[in-house]
Design a protein that fits this description.
about 20% strand; elongated; single chain; five-stranded parallel sheet; about 350 residues; Rossmann fold; alpha/beta; six-stranded parallel sheet; 12 helices
Length: about 350
């Protein structure tokens, strides 16, 4: 996943934004950067200034990368396209090539940089901050992007948590999703950090993608899964008009722990040699996306949930498959989904121990 870290601690914002504990703020931001790298994710920042959460988190991430072999950039720097300007993190770039990559923004405002950070990220973590941080957080929340506001040091992050608690549905939250917000306002600790990572869906409960065709059964399945897992991705629900569908699919599919493919009888087909014999089939995109998961995320991380008698390609005979009659949340289907979720959770916990 790509995690954007935003925020700041400025003396001039102490009164208006209630900022506190400057030294602890710096330490927390560095720890967040280290934890993002330790979990195999990449970081998106907008500056190298050490009064910002961005710059401090990048510093922590760079320190963590000293012990990590990686063949891809792990820190994306969103910056203004200014001819002749100096590159952020210039000394670190010279020390280790290939860690940083730039995303240039054709604008004259740092507020735009913050918004681009939010747009590029799979999840956001906010620490302290003022107006620009608040704007980015509100856009992320309204777009239902995973967001954790560490309010331990006041600022925009604390103000946002209070706003989300006061009127959760206005900002795209269900009431049950706000359960960690009070904890994120506590003095910073390992428990607060863990709560933030879980709130941003970076760790904790499994994250699932629903692969589907044209059936509205996907909405029923999504509603059911949201009661049991960390996050549910339905590609059609993810607002992103800037990327082609294959790139968009790969980005979201790479951020989840597993997938449930709804194999519904949306099409019919048969052999050209027997044109009078047709059978119910799923949409072609379903099998393309199942194949991607099989090849990239392992066969054990995808299950097929079929509606009635639907033709299954013979090559997929070894993929876990269950059938439902009317609704994907009916008792028998629900039991198999729970087993699948339990297996993903066990695999995640085993990986943490290892």
């Amino acid at each position: 996943m790509r995690i954007a870290v935003l925020g700041s601690w400025r003396a001039e914002d102490v009164t208006n934004w209630g900022l506190c504990e400057e030294k602890a703020f710096a330490q927390a931001c560095k720890q967040v950067g280290r934890e993002v790298i330790a979990r195999g994710h990449s970081l998106i920042v907008g500056t190298d200034s050490l009064h910002t959460a961005d710059g401090l988190a990048a510093q922590g991430a760079f320190e963590a990368l000293a012990n990590v072999d990686s063949d891809r950039p792990r820190i994306t720097v969103v910056r203004l396209d200014e001819p002749g300007g100096t590159r952020p993190f210039d000394a670190a770039r010279r020390e280790r090539a290939g860690v940083f990559v730039d995303h240039l923004v054709d604008a004259a405002s740092m507020a735009v940089v913050k918004l681009v950070q939010a747009q590029l990220a799979d999840a956001l973590m906010l620490i302290g901050g003022a107006e620009k941080t608040e704007q980015a957080g509100l856009i992320a929340a309204f777009g239902k992007r995973p967001l954790a506001c560490i309010g331990s040091f006041g600022g925009a992050a604390a103000a946002l948590n209070k706003r989300f608690l006061k009127s959760p549905t206005t900002w795209g939250y269900e009431s049950w999703e706000t359960k960690r917000l009070d904890q994120l306002q506590e003095p910073f600790s390992d428990l607060v950090l863990r709560a933030a990572l879980e709130q941003a869906w970076i760790e904790g409960a499994p994250k699932l993608m629903i692969i589907h065709g044209r059936s509205t059964d996907r909405d029923v399945l999504k509603e059911y899964l949201l009661q049991h897992v960390g996050r549910v991705i339905v590609l059609a629900d993810e607002i992103d008009t800037t990327q082609p569908i294959p790139i968009k699919f790969e980005r979201f599919a790479s951020s989840v722990d597993g997938a449930i493919a709804l194999v519904t009888p949306d099409d019919v087909g048969g052999l050209a040699a027997a044109p009078g014999i047709v059978v119910p089939r799923a949409r072609e995109n379903v099998w393309l996306e199942v194949g991607w998961f099989w090849g990239r995320r392992r066969r054990a991380n995808v299950m097929l949930l079929t509606k009635g008698e639907v033709n299954i390609p013979s090559d997929l005979g070894g993929v876990e498959k269950y059938e439902y009659t009317t609704s994907p949340d009916e008792a028998q289907a629900a039991a198999t989904i729970q087993k699948f979720i339990a297996r993903l959770r066990a695999a995640s916990e085993a990986a943490e121990v290892a």
